[in-house]
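Notebook entry, structure prediction.
Reason for the run: the old model in the group folder had no record of what sequence produced it. Starting over properly, with the input documented here first.
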Amino acid sequence: MFEQITEQFQSAMKPANSLLAMNIQTFEKLTQHNTALVSGLVNDTMSYTKTLSSHKDLNSYMEANKSFAEGMQEKLTTAAKDAYSILSEAQEQAAETWKDMFSQAAPAKAKPATKAS
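New structure, fully documented this time:
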């Protein structure tokens, strides 16, 4: 009896455990992604500031600003798309887990009633 209750509890907790593992995995992916993004932005900013003193006229200074801003915009756009992709994938996996959980629960609930003679 106790073993059966333990088994039922473990099977009932599988979807929650799966969702928790999925959340942890998604968080790790986003953390790695954001760490790489911030490192890249810091490195680009450092190299940009090192080259600022080499620009002697306004046109070259403005051109350097423009290329720096465009590079930053491209990196941030790519990072946003990548983060959206990671979150969309996690959302799809979570939806599939919930769907499986409810489809497994539905047959147990929908047992046909028998008529008493």
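Summary: The first helix runs from residue 2 to 51.
The old model has been moved to the deprecated folder.
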